[in-house]
Amino acid sequence: MRTKHWLRLVGLTLALALVVAACGGDDATDDTEAGDTTTTEAAEETTTTEAAEETTTTEAPEATGSLLIWADANQAPVFEAVGADFTEATGVEVEVQVVDRGDIREQVQVAGPAGEGPDIFVGAFDWTGELAANGVIAPVDLGANADDFFQVAVDGFSFGGELYGVPVSTEAIAMIVNNDLVPVEDTPTAIEDLAGVCEGIEGLETCLAVQGGGDAGDLYHMIWFLTAPGGYIFGFDEEAGYDTTDVGLDSPGAIEGAEVIDQLTRDGVMASINGDTAQNLFLEGQAPFWVTGPWNVSTLNDSGINYSVVKLPTIGGETPAPFVGSNGVFLSAFSENAVIAQTFLSDYIATTEVQRAIYDADPRNPATQSVLDQLADDPVVAAFTLSGADGIPMPNIPEMNSVWAAGGDNILALRNGQIDPELAMTSAADTVRTLLAEAG
Questions:
Q1: Averaged over 397-406, what is the pLDDT?
Q2: What predicted TM-score, i.e. pTM, was given to this entire model?
Q3: Less Cβ crowding at N or C end of the chain, within 10 Å?
Q4: Reduced to 3 states, what is the DSSP secondary structure of residue 43?
C-alpha cells in the first residue's frame, strides 16, 4: 500500500500553508485589509514556483497536524496500515481507535462538540440525515475516483444535495441455500415452492430462517415481503425526495405482504425466530434456507457448509425489493484538521487499492466498479449484487427513526400470532404518523 501522491501532496502542502497564513499575526491581516493585491499575487507566484520545484525533488515536504480515526474492530487494521502510509508520505500522524460500531453514532455527537471526537469515523449511510441535520458531519469530495463509485452508494450518503461520506461497501440481503440439503438445480425461485421442497427433508426445525421474530422485531430483514406486492415506507419523488406525510406501511401492498408473512408462519414454513437462532438453525443443518447479508460470508466460509447464494424468491410472481444499504467513512464537522482529513479520504480511502483492502478485511459488496471487476469470478459477490440490484435505497432521513420500532414490533406480533395482518400494518402506520406529528 506504499502509494506516492506527489502532486496531491503538494496540493495538501499549499492548503496547509494557507491555513497557517490565515492564523498569522496582525501585520498579515492589515496587508489584506489594505488591499495589497500586488503583495498577495507575488506570494502566490512564489508559492507556485516553489511547488513546481518540489515536484522535481525525491521527497515530498512534510505537513503538520494529526488525525484521529474511529473504526470498528474489522476495519481498524486497514486504517492503521493506510495511516502508516499517510504518515510516511506526509508527516501527519494518524491514530486509530477501535470503537464498537454500535456506539459510534451516539458518542460522536457528544465527543465532537466537546472537542474530543475523531476527525474521521466509520458508519452506516442511514446515519447521514441525522448527523447532517445535527451539524455533526461535513461534506466530502471523492476526488479523482468519483466516477468509480456506484450511484446507489453515493445516494445513500447524500443529504440536502451534499455528499457526506466516502462509501466503502454496499449491502443487501439474499437467500443462502444449503446445497447438501437442496441441490443447486432444485433451488426454488418462488416462495410458494419452498414448502414443497422442505417436505422431503428430515430433521428440519424450520424451512426458511429469517431474522425478525423471537424476542426482537426486525423490519430490515422483513421489508421484502412488503415491497414485493407494492408496499413502501414513505412516498418518494426523484426531485422532491421522501414525502413523510405519505406513510405506506398500511398501503394495500404492505397489507398483502403481511398476509404472506402470516400464512408462511401458520403453515410452519417460517418460524418466529431471532437472528442468532436463524443463523444457528442454518449452520446446524436444521434449516435449508437462510435470509441474511454479505456480513455473514466469513461465518459461512468458516462453517464448511456447501452453500450457494441466490436472489430472494418471488412472492406472488413479483420480485421483492430488499433495502440496499452502504457503509462508509464520515468527516467530522468539528475536525480541526479538515483539510488534511479530506486529503486522506479522497487520495487514500477513495482509491481502488484501499477499497479492496477494506473488502478483504470485512467482505461486503464493494462500493466501486473497479473492486467489483476484481471480484467478477466470485459467485457469492455476484449473487448479493444481483439481489441488491432489485432493491431500494433505505431512507437515510431522520424520520426513519420513527419507523423501525413501529414496523418491527408489529411484524413481530404478527409472526407470534398475536395480531392479524391488517391490524399489524395499520397499527404500525398509525404509530409512525403519531410520532412524526409529535416531532413536529
A1: 92
A2: 0.71
A3: C
A4: helix
